[in-house]
Amino acid sequence: MKRALVTGGNSPIGIAICQELSSMDFHVLVHGHQHQERCEDVTKQLIEKGGSAESIYCDLTDPETTEHTMNKILEIGPIQVIVHNAGIYADAPLAGMTTQQWHQVINVSLNGFFHVTQPLLLPMIRTRWGRIITISSLSGMIGHRGQTNYSAAKSGLHGATRSLATEVASRGITVNVVAPGLIQSPSTENAFTVEQIESMVPMKRVGQPEEVASVVGFLASEKASYLSGQIIGVNGAMA
Description:
Layout: E1 3-7, H1 12-23, E2 27-32, H2 36-48, E3 52-57, H3 63-74, E4 81-84, H4 99-127, E5 130-135, H5 139-142, H6 148-168, E6 173-180, H7 186-191, H8 194-200, H9 209-219, E7 231-234
Parallel strand pairs: 1-2, 1-4, 2-3, 4-5, 5-6, 6-7
Helix pairs in contact: 1-9, 3-4, 4-6
């Protein structure tokens, strides 16, 4: 059974991705750092539905801790699907943004991608099959006011993805980005009214986490073996 690691697996999009990959018969490693009880709940639900799953915990901004955790995972065997979904917000106009706000967001999304992927890459390469999928954002494609840090982190993932895709293309490994727009979650419910959403999104609604997860599932499948180095927007025609 192939193993798939989902960072930020206890977020709304992360949960949907874990469920999708479990339905595809991957053994799913549900990663979290804070709110560990949510990871346990996700893992329990996957197992109750007949899937194979486990929870793992580490702070992706800590390179030593993350490397140790990845090496423990590798003792059992390679990870062949990496979905880097972990990310945080710390919104502020750049003129008022603190150094901590800048580095926090960059460290989780962009540095976290390196800290997770680098230790897992050579074992994946040796199997000559793999899928690396990063979850970005519309903000990384077009930018949003007050999200210079977040946009920088997510667009940095775009460049990393395109470069890494060329490095591993001959080894049966694909590397792609999924960039959601407004997706149903507690944060979108609190941030936007129905009227605002209808004016912003051509499809007149927010997306569902499952709609993002279905794209991830396709990219993780054999059917997507010739698709690599791409940024795929899931945003209701916002861009």
